[in-house]
Give the backbone structure.
Amino acid sequence: EAGVAQSPRYKIIEKRQSVAFWCNPISGHATLYWYQQILGQGPKLLIQFQNNGVVDDSQLPKDRFSAERLKGVDSTLKIQPAKLEDSAVYLCASSSPGHLSGNTIYFGEGSWLTVV
Amino acid sequence: AQSVTQPDIHITVSEGASLELRCNYSYGATPYLFWYVQSPGQGLQLLLKYFSGDTLVQGIKGFEAEFKRSQSSFNLRKPSVHWSDAAEYFCAVAAYNNNDMRFGAGTRLTVKP
């Protein structure tokens, strides 16, 4: 079974530029998560989708971050404009349906963003 | 909101020695508790989870954890550490019926030969 796929794996951009990350969850997984992991910290949930609907985006900085999952499968996370403090690993994860149902969340390897 | 504290930033143990990683949570009701492991450059892998029932939970790779409500703790243990266990370990807590899972800052495990 293929895991959660993310791209690009690494990205370096200048502040005020934009960047987009793509995630392809495990086939059949209805729930998709985006986490931000800053160096030395644990992951922080940015947004959670159930199919193509948003379940929780309370910790998403909506002035600069956006995410979509138009067809309920792939998802894109965008940052515009980027700030230095956005340097982090962006982890995509999926589960079927949600982790509180006892299902395991599977994480991708992450997209590493450096803002200079 | 729920929160997690992992008091130890870095722990070093010798191969073959026992291991205990500490995790304390804050939440007013019965939490859902998790331990994840992250190897360098990799995503997180679930080691074990506690939802209800037996407070001693067995996981993969020989790990176990014990939920102690009176101490608000969910410590991770392994009787004999292998060099391949060197990684970052994260404890996480989720509230009942709440999708927001909060992670601790992590404990980095180094294994000496």
Summary: The interface with chain B takes residues 4, 40-45, 48, 55-56, 58-59, 91, 93, 98-100, 102, 104-110 of chain A (CB under 8 Å). The CA atoms of residues 32 and 94 of chain A lie 4 Å apart.
